Every structure is written in structure tokens, then in C-alpha cells.
Amino acid sequence: MTTPEFPFAPRPVPEAIAHLGRLVADRPMTKMTMPYGGDVWLVHRNSAARTVLGDSRFVREPFRTGEREVPFFVPFPDFLRTTLQFEDPPQHTRLRKLVQKAISPKRVAAMRASAVAFANQLIDDMVAKGGPRDLVPEYSLGLPIEMLSNLLGVPSADRDKFERWSASTLAVAGKTEDEVAADMAELAAYMTNLIGRRREQPQDDLLSALARARERDETLTDAEILPIAFLLIVGGFDNTATFLSTGVLALLRNDDQRDVFLADPDGLAATTAEEILRHGGFALGNPAGGGAGLVPFVATEDVVVEGQLITAGEAVSIDPSAAGHDPAAVDDPGRFDITRKDNPHLTLSYGLHHCLGAPLARMELQVGLAELFKRLPGLRLAGEPVFSRDVLTQPMTSLPVTW
User: Does residue 218 have a pLDDT over 70?
Assistant: First the structure.
């Protein structure tokens, strides 16, 4: 038996899934050299990934301070290193506790009705114009940018500028460094001004809640609120739009699952969202490879995880594709099953660094899918999707559809 290679080049999905199965059976992780930042351990097994994500001996301070370059497949945007996800305890614990008060499941639940209403407004606009339409700018981006703007308290008149600035936060090509820096400076100045206004005149939005958040006698400073807002912008704007576009395309390319979903969109929205987070990219039918990971950590001491020694100072990252297709954790992982009840994927991470915006992303994905297919059950493709390689997350930028 040959040792399963990693990274591996794109191949037909069934072959890729089988390869991931052999990989996790062979070893918990693989050391690889990233295009930028040097070597990193990519953790494949679901159980090993959860161990790493729950172990405080893995930290991000060397990346935050600039002592180490982030091992990644593209140059890692500097601004992300200033955000909450690069903080370690106790500062991370303090900030996260205050933020969770301000972005609670209760607050997100209260936003659901407005998400449903806005989704239907976007669908009304598409129907009025007639097909074919491009779903990404007219729906997949429109819904999360509206919800994020509402959550942060961005005035509606400023949302076009806000969308342009937000898109620039993840640019890795297609814009000069000066253009990205100018957009980031404008966004920072805008948000700082908005935070100041919310301190003086609080409203029912996240920035007001963060400005008033207290722990004992401590409040968040503007310098602490700004990176939190930036992190929510990244997760709430770009990633959620891509999850939604991927989910729609996955259902359109899998007739059996689309028929199941159409029978009960509201009832199946939650499990469908989780299966899209786990397997949606594979369900598109395009060749799939392996080699990418989540934001890495650095080991502060020698740690043994499932028999593999990770020495002090080595970088470690989670391979979410393998972890979400580990046969020891997921039954028949190659099957796209929107009724799947047990779905321990790690797309939104886990433990200390579980995605802060996960409740919002899940709600938007559930609402976005359910409302679209309830209103347009005959939705179908009117062309091929387009993906951008100029942005860190390589999002879908166009999805022509008709009905």
C-alpha cells in the first residue's frame, strides 16, 4: 500500500473523497510547506482537529506580533492579524465574552423576521426584472450585507460604500497595495466615527452594544471594537455569501436533494445548511483537491496528538475538508444528504476559536435557501458559475439563474 499523498491535485469527487478516507486512516496529520510562511502541520482527522482546537498550548501570538509569517497559500492580509481571532487568553477570553453578550443567539433570532422580509424583497426585485439574473450580486451578497449593516448599525445611505470597503478587506490580487490600504483607511475612519456616534447616541445595534459592553468596570475601547467589527465584516459578508451561493448551486446540481428540499424548505433548512457547510463544495461536482487549512496556530511546547509529536514552535492548521469527510466521524461522508442529523464538520471551527458570527451565518444561510426555493421552485442554472482568485476566500462572484 502506498502512503496517501498530501497535498493532492484535483480529481473527480468520488476519488477525492476516497483519498481523504485513506489519508485519515493512515495518519492524523501531514507536515507540508506552504507557498508563504514555511512549514505547517495540516490536521486531517476530526478527533485530532478537535483536540488541537481545544488545547490552549496552541496559540496565535507569534502571528499577531509579526514574529512569524502566517503559513498560508497566499500572503495573509495584515489587517486580519489585528482581529480577535489572533488573540489568545486571557485577552481573547475577555473580548469574546463581551462580544457574545452583544451578538447573542437571542439577538440573531430577533433578526430572522427581517431577514425573511429582505430575502423576499430581493426575490421580488429579481422577478420584476425577469430572468435570467445573476444570483450572487442580486441575492447572495444582498442578503448578508443587509443583515450585517443592520447588525452593525450602518446607515442605509452608506451601504454601497460599505460594500466596496468590505470587499477590499480580503483582496489578495486585482488591487494594488495602495488601493487596498486606502480602502481600509476609509473603512477604519468610517467605523471609528460611527462608534463615536453610537457612544453618544446609542441605538439598537451591535456597535452600540459593544460601545456599552462592560466587564466589571472595564469597557471596550475604540481600538478593541474596530478589529471586532472588521472580523464580523469578513465573516458576515464574504463567507456567508459564498456559503449561500454554493448551497444554491449544490441543490441545483443534485436533483434528488433539491426535490427533498422543495418538499419542506423550512423544516429542512437547518440540516441543509449544515450539510452545505460540510460538503457543499464537493456537491458541485467539480474536481476536488486537498492542501488548504484554517488559520494556523503555533505550539508553545512539545505536544503529542494521536501519536504525532508537534514540537514547540511548529505551526499547526486544521484541514476542514478531511475533518468533514472522516469516516470515523461522518457516516458515508461522500454522500450529499441534506437530512443528515449528526454533522460534526469544522467549517466554522470549534472550541475557543469557534466562529463568532456562526449563529448569524447559519440563520442567513437557512433563510436564504428556504425563501428562494419556496418562491422560485423552478429555479435552474442559466450559465456557469464564476469564481474569483483575487480574494482570500476565492468566492463565487457570478451564478446565472432563471426560473
Answer: no
